[in-house]
Design goal:
The chain is an alpha/beta fold. It has one domain: NAD(P)-binding Rossmann-like Domain (Rossmann fold, 3-Layer(aba) Sandwich), CATH 3.40.50. The protein is built from nine helices and eight strands. It has an eight-stranded mixed β-sheet with strand order 3-2-1-4-5-6-7-8, sandwiched between helices. Helix 2 links the parallel strand 2 and strand 3. Helix 1 packs across helix 8 and helix 5 packs across helix 9. The chain is globular and about 50 Å long. Bound molecules: NADP nicotinamide-adenine-dinucleotide phosphate. The site of NADP nicotinamide-adenine-dinucleotide phosphate has 26 residues, from helix 1.
Length: about 280
């Protein structure tokens, strides 16, 4: 499927802040046609204006969707699929870290819903278009925090376990890897690659929505952390570098391949997560 010119089309979620925003700036500067998925209209519009002003690339569209809602994800993809537009790159980036348990309107724990189910759901709903647009790429922003995760598919929402924000976050980031590896295998030979990354430890808005000490603590240590622009480097590279056009099912940090935690390669766990996710997003 061809775009109007030679531009490649890229959708980025969570593009109004942090790593997603910088990924959008960099890809716009490289001439990509962008679709930014943001949950807040004003922040989204301000981001689009700033990207157009600074990069002189006017091909930047905004879509508003709260990715904790399966209905919003369905509407977002439905509207996109109505347009006869290719999708060469999908960057699943939107993420949250909660220190207190919250549920979505569907009764799903919020971090699981945004950090894992939204990646899974949006990718599956757009998959046919991505396949038609091959060579194409799915880039999933995970985290090295996945290394401390204990995943429990009987209780992914931590309703039966003590709610510890970092453990909940780490589990969702392990799910990003399990999903990426399973999807990469399912898409083998289609010209669609799927890769996952750790962006580094980056000063962003992550966790600042929480009450208590977390926002204060993250502000305090932020001078020690990477700037968001540096944190976007591996996402941008995986989305655009010609040398990895055929690389799939891998984990990267600093634009270099790394092994992820042993548990992430467990194929039976990958398949069980796939089945559970299908049910949870209503595609089962
Ligand atoms: N920062 C780090 O050190 C670090 C380390 C490892 C991995 N990561 C990963 O990097 C990714 C980006 O995070 P970040 O650090 O750049 O944090 P961030 O600045 O807080 O950005 C997160 C983005 O996700 C969006 N978002 C959150 N909930 C959403 C929802 N329900 N619907 C739609 N969008 C939603 C936010 O929208 P708003 O602008 O409206 O808040 C924001 O644009 C995440 O997947 C995170 O897990 C970050």
């Amino acid at each position: 499927m061809e775009t109007t010119g030679t531009q490649r089309v890229c959708m980025i979620t969570g593009a109004s802040s942090g790593i997603g925003r910088e990924t959008a700036f960099e890809l716009a500067a490289r001439g990509y046609e962008l679709i930014l998925v943001c949950r807040d209209l004003l922040r989204g519009e301000a981001t689009v204006r700033e990207i157009v002003r600074r990069t002189r690339n006017a091909s930047v569209d905004l879509r508003i969707a709260d990715l904790s809602s399966p209905r919003a994800i369905r509407n977002l993809s439905h509207e996109f699929l109505l347009e006869a537009r290719p999708l060469h790159v999908l960057v699943n980036n939107a993420g949250i870290l909660n220190t207190r348990r919250r549920e979505t309107g569907e009764g799903i724990e919020e971090v699981w819903a945004v950090n894992h189910l939204a990646y899974f759901h949006l990718t599956l709903l757009l998959l046919e278009r991505i396949r038609e647009s091959a060579p194409a790429r799915v880039v999933n922003v995970s985290s090295d925090a996945h290394r401390m995760a204990r995943i429990d598919l009987d209780d992914p929402g931590f309703s039966q376990r003590p709610y510890r924000g970092l453990a909940v976050y780490a589990q969702s980031k392990l799910a990003n890897l399990l999903f990426s590896y399973e999807l990469a295998r399912r898409l083998s030979g289609t010209g669609v690659t799927v890769n996952c990354l750790h962006p580094g430890t980056v000063a962003t808005g992550l966790g600042r929505n929480n009450p208590g000490a977390w926002p204060w603590l993250t502000r305090l240590i932020s001078p020690l952390l990477w700037r968001a622009r540096r944190g976007a480097r591996t996402s941008v590279w995986l989305a655009s570098a010609p040398e990895i056009e055929h690389t799939t099912g891998r984990y990267f940090q600093n634009c270099r391949e790394r092994r992820s935690a042993r548990l992430s390669y467990d194929r039976s766990l990958q398949r069980r997560l796939w089945e559970l996710s299908l049910k949870q997003v209503g595609l089962g």
